[in-house]
Amino acid sequence: MKITINESIDSFRMLRESGAYYVDKTLLLKEYLADRFKSCVLFARPRRFGKTMAMTMFRDFLDIHRDSKAIFEGLKIMEYPEVVDKFHNQYPVVFLSLKEVFGKSFDSVFDNLQVVVSTLCSENAYLLESPTVGDADKEFLNELCFRRGKQSYYLESLSLLARMLH
Predict the structure, then answer these.
(1) pTM of this structure
(2) CA angle at residue 120 from 136 to 60, to 5 degrees?
(3) Mean pLDDT over residues 136-154, rounded?
(4) What number of CA atoms fall less than 13 Å from residue 149's CA on the CB side?
(5) Per residue in 111-127, pLDDT tens?
(6) Whole-number Å distance between alpha carbons of 15 and 4
(7) How far apart (Å, rounded) are the C-alpha atoms in residues 104 and 88?
(8) Torsion angles phi and psi, residue 12, rounded to 5
(9) How far is the CA of 154 from the CAs of 35, 80, 105, 139, 150, in angstroms?
(10) Choice among 29-38, 48-57, 143-152 with the minimum mean pLDDT
(11) Residue 51 has what pLDDT?
(12) Residue from 90, 81, 33, 84 nearest 63 by CA
C-alpha cells in the first residue's frame, strides 16, 4: 500500500479515507470521554498542532448523524468496547471552528462570524421540525439561519443550539 503524507488535511474523515499516513491518536477520545470528561474541552495549542484534526476526530466519533465505523476501524479506540458502546455515534454534536473568522475591522470579523454561525444553524435546521422544540426557539434559529439576527443573537447561538439539541 502506498503511504502518502499530507500536512494540509485537517479533517479526520478525509485523512482516513484518503489513505494518508496517520499516527493513531484515538486514545485521546478515551482519555477525555471515559476518564476525565466533565463539561467542555478547550484544545489550546499553537498553530499547526492538530487542533482541528482532534476536533474533527471527536465530532466523527460522537456525532449521531454520522456513520463513522469504517474510519475508526483498526484504530486503538476500537479496542475499548466500553467507550465505543457508550459514545460512538451516540450524541448530537455542535462543531464550530473559528479559523475562518478574521478581518481588519469589527464589522468584517462579525460578518465572517455571521456566516459561520448561519452555516452551523442551517446544518441543524431539522430542529425546526421537532415537536419538542418551542416556537420561540424555532423562530430564533430561523433568524440565525438567514443571518437576520441582531448581534446579541449570535452571542446566544451556541446556547440555543445546545438547548434545542438537548
Answers:
(1) 0.81
(2) 125
(3) 91
(4) 27
(5) 999 999 999 999 999 99
(6) 10
(7) 41
(8) -60, -45
(9) 33, 39, 17, 14, 7
(10) 29-38
(11) 82
(12) 90
The residue length of the chain stands at 166
Measured between alpha carbons, how far is 85 from 130 in angstroms, rounded to an integer?
A: 26
89-92 long-range contacts, CB within 8 A, separation 24+: 89/61, 89/62, 89/63, 89/64, 90/62, 90/64, 91/62, 91/63, 91/64, 92/63, 92/64, 92/65, 92/165
Tell me, what's the pLDDT at 133?
94
The grid coordinates listed for 115 are 456566516
| Contact (Cβ atoms closer than 8 angstroms) between residue 161 and residue 121 | yes
Its sign, for the CA torsion 42, 94, 39, 79, is: negative
pLDDT(89) > 90: yes
Q: What is the mean pLDDT of residues 94-123?
A: 91
Nearest to 77 by CA among 121, 30, 115: 30
Average pLDDT, integer, range 63-92 = 94
pLDDT of residue 46: 67
Find, among 11, 108, 93, the residue nearest to 51 by Cα.
11
Instruction: Give the position of cell 443571518.
Output: 147
Residue 142 has pLDDT above 80, yes or no: yes
Task: Please compute, for residue 160, the number of CA atoms within 13 A of its CA located in the half-sphere on the CB side.
Answer: 27
Q: Which of the 8 DSSP states describes residue 127?
A: G
